[in-house]
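Margin note from the TA: students keep mixing up input and output lines. Inputs are the sequences; the output is the structure of the whole complex. Example:
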Amino acid sequence: MAEEKPEKKKLDLNRQPMPKQDHWERIRNFDEVALGYPTEVAVKEASRCLQCKKPLCNQGCPVGIDIPGFIRHTVEGDFGSGIRTIKETNALPAICGRVCPQEEQCEKSCILGKKGAPIAIGRLERFLADWEAAHGKIEVPKMSPKTGKKVAIVGAGPAGITVSNDLIILGHDVTIFEALHECGGVLIYGIPEFRLPKAIVNREVEYVRSLGVKIHTDYVVGKTRTVDRLLEEFDALFVGSGAGLPWFMEIPGENLNGVYSANEYLTRVNLMKGFRFPEYQTPVKRPCRVAVVGGGNVAMDSARTAIRLGADEVHLVYRRSRAELPARAEEAENAEEEGVIFDLLTLPVRLFGDENGWVREIECLKMELGEADASGRRKPVPVEGSNFRVPFDAVVIAIGNSPNPLIPMTTPGLEISKKGGIVTQPETARTSRVNIWAGGDIVRGAATVISAMGDGRIAAASMHKYLMNRE
Amino acid sequence: MYKIIERRMIVPNLHEFTVEAPAVAESVKPGNFIIVRADQYGERIPLSVADWDRQAGTVTSIFMQVGGSTARLARLKPGDTIPTFVGPLGKETVIENVGTILCVGGCYGIGSIYPVARAMREAGNKVYTLLEARSSFLLYWEDKLAAVSDKVFVITRDGTKGQKGHIAKLPELMQRAGITPQLVIVNGCTFQMMRVSMATKPLGWKTIVNMNPIMIDGTGMCGVCRLSVGGKTKFACVDGPDFDGHEIDWAEFLARRKSYNPEEVDPLRRSSCQSHF
């Protein structure tokens, strides 16, 4: 290695810690855990940035935010310019700052990360978005003249909101059709209040509405009206219908009472507010010993929800080791602080119920790590004869889901992958049908909020081109 | 918001419920269901569709008051509005000419079997309808069903109308009438659908049941409505709600239906100082 050049400014290798609710307090409420940087802390963190001439961080961002740009404005205390810089490419910064897997994306390629902690890009993004909201000066972008073209968006999740934001600014007439009674998709039904307050999601939805986007809730495209019926009225259509049927392990006992998909468990609590039953009328069980199967963000959300619903003991059962946990590092740490017990290298093989059909026990196998598999992670291999049984009165399965089947089932001529997702061209998000685009989980299966937004951005650009060149 | 056109108790504990929802009315078909919330705190509950008027843009369901959420629905009056009325959901009942069809209805299913019988008749089938109730005063829509059926049979538990006894008398009743249906379609409570399936299995009469599990989104996302059909897990909201009654794991289904019974009834035990009338 070449000898390092002397730095102009002294490197600060430690990031500013995120103020959080104390763990003993937050396990009794559903309020947001991370409280956000105060102004002076944000500026201090931002000033660690080296302002690289050839930055790598923005290449790691699916929507290509000018990261050094907004950080520079933050250092200068010009927060208005900072948030404007972000919003040039990201319509939902308050959300992305909270839920993006930054350590896998922008922060992963930060030069500071080679010697110490990478700059806290997500936290700074969140700071600017919250600053803008708190100062009540949400800027309305410059709107292009009306084009007279009509666009239909299926699903008001992160992909759909991004497309509608981009296309309304470009002058198109945009209508969103949302199946549920509230907008936000996974941001509302999936991600818990303690990680992403619903007020923030509602704020973003109201923002696109204020730009002129029309929204129909309780409207299931494919059922209430088919895609083809909508295309009689609309010039182009984007499908962002999101997650579909939850995956189960296909082991005996999975249809016992007390066994939930993470989608069901989280929807009961988040969308339907079951934690406030009976004021809100959707019930949710409050079991004592809960096992959550899986290791992603959804598994962490489910486990931490179970803690807040008063469980005595919550176990996260994951078949690989700690290093392979796909969840955001911060959420895994939070879960551990809150008392979630990690049963790593453990694979459930059978669930046992009582005479009334309620789950009572799980039989598991111990695993060890073998050779690397297709995903580059070491493959877990069962240790023979290591079976053991543990009592649980609820099991939440959080191992992923397939794309939603409704549009694929009801739209002829749409090319569908083996896994049930809509096939698109990655560079345009176009489907096999000429005036239909798609993005997010309906294409990828269970992926991230930011990748759905990235798809939305690509689709919007391609749709705009199509709409303007037509005829 | 969706306007209530009609909500009246049609027989004790069963309500006829008509809502203005033009987009739903435009696409609804026999065998579909809708999801409704009574107010902004409400649970999403699925109701089978019993009738519709495409021109007026209205959809009618029959529901039974069993727990807190249906109690709220039962307090609604014409002119009131509800925040959610979404559908039509689920696959429609397959309508084709198979020859002779026996439509079986019980409880709220006397309502939802009506559009099935109507469509099957229009498709050229001979349609027999069999209604089951505890007593004659719990029967409704007999005239509507008679108008779309070749004959309507009735079984009452107490014998106040038609054949005395239980739905298990179905084969005996059909044998006496000399009817061998090519297809039996059942809409009703879980227990009735199970008993019909058990009775028709040894006779080899193909039996379709319109399943009614607990649901939340109803669009193939949450997975609470899963059931075992022929040893495979299916999702009633997108794979059904119609399934082959001979293939269903009924014990599992009955247990899953009951999983929130305490919570369903709990709000009814509380005095919430709201006007109950």
